[in-house]
Amino acid sequence: MRVAARTIVGHSAGGVVSFGNTIESVDLGSAPADVETFDYLCAGFVDLQVNGYDDVDVWRAARARDDAAIARLSERLLDHGVTAWQPTLVTAPLDRYRDALEFLATTPRSGADRVGVHLEGPFLGRAPGAHRRDHIIDVDLEFVDSLSSVVSMMTIAPESRGSSQAIASLTSRGVRCSLGHARPSDVEFALARSAGASAVTHLFNAMSGVEHRDPGLATWALLDDALTLGLIADGVHVHPDVIALAFRTAADRIALVSDSVGWADDPDSPTDSPTSRVGVDVRDGAPRLPDGTLAGTNLTLDRAVRVCVDAGVPAEVALLAASRTPARLMGLDDRGAIESRRRADLVALDGEMRVVAVWLEGSRVR
User: Which of the residues 259, 265, 266, 281 is marked catalytic?
Assistant: First the structure.
């Protein structure tokens, strides 16, 4: 198959891409008149932090062993250009993770490709955000060492006792460790980095920040050229001006994430669920707890790209933050770029950054 674009993202030029299951060639230049042409052609988006969306919640689906809910979420993600994603499990009692991870490892695959599981907690620190404080604990190394191989990423606070040992153990097994929900000292941050932490979870949110007399995790992350910076670009969690500032500082290290949640009411959900939506509603642009605390987002990655562009980020730079950078962080060398022999996971967009076509391993699915 051949498709053309006025901009092939990653090449900063127009041309024709030929592909089967994988990309066969990229020919820059004018496209023949008989080849379908789009404004932008980008590698499929990779979302590293998906807790749910609308009426689907990953934790609830895992507890109920609801294959249909996970399949429905995977299909919805394709609508928004996401071809790979990490189901995310937030803070919960340790004894609940094993069954949830086994379910996520074995539930049938459909829609966007699942590329591991992100554990966001329970080893968090002094910035818990919307996480259940009664479930946040110091690192349990026995639990860490027994984790299923389906875990591909874990958010840990550097100030959590035992965090450096946990990070070293996880990274030795290929698990990416991200620093978040934290207000560490500079020494705690340095120890976590030395142990192998390679990212931060939702830059600026639920962490110490950029204060001119009291720098914190966000400052150190922006200054560290080896860290990937997860960023929620909904214009609510991070102001558009600060989004623009982050891209000017570290454009090639920003990985856009949705941090989306299943915000819709579920009367059958147990109130002791780690992600109980009791009292949560969408107000002022995002899901919130009754006290106004942000409780994740109703964001999709295509909208995140549009918010970035509206904030002044060049379109191609924003699209790379949704595709190449998260794939690179996770070592997904078979995708994330429009290059020969990579998977033909592709998304086409119009000039307004709206998704108009999606291919998964060369098959058009949208």
Answer: 259
Q: Are residues 27 and 126 in the same domain?
A: no
> What single DSSP character describes residue 133?
G
Residue 340 is assigned to a structural domain of this protein: no
Neighbours of 245 (CB within 10 A): 15
* pTM for the structure as a whole: 0.95
Query: How much of the chain, in percent, has pLDDT values that exceed 90?
Result: 89
Which residues, 6 or more positions from 187, have their beta carbon under 8 angstroms from its beta carbon? none
Q: How confident is the model at residue 111 (pLDDT cuts 50, 70, 90)?
A: very high
Q: Which of 53, 41, 51 is nearest to 14 (CA)?
A: 41
**Which of 183, 185, 180, 181 minimizes the C-alpha distance to 200?**
180
Q: Are residues 227 and 79 in the same domain?
A: yes
CB atoms < 10 A from the CB of 274, how many? 23
**From the CA atom positions of the chain, what is the Rg in Å?**
20
Is residue 200 within 8 A of residue 192, CB to CB? The reply is no
- CA nearest to 78, candidates 264, 305, 230, 302: 302
**Residue among 117, 121, 138 at smallest CA distance from 130:** 121
Instruction: Give, as one character, the DSSP assignment of residue 134.
Output: G
246 assigned to some structural domain: yes
Give the number of other CB atoms < 10 A from CB of residue 356. 14
Is residue 57 annotated as part of the catalytic site, yes or no?
no
Instruction: Note whether residue 339 is domain-resident.
Output: no
Q: What is the model's pLDDT at position 5?
A: 97
Number of domains in the chain: 2
State whether 52 and 36 are in the same domain: no
Same domain membership, residue 273 and residue 148? yes
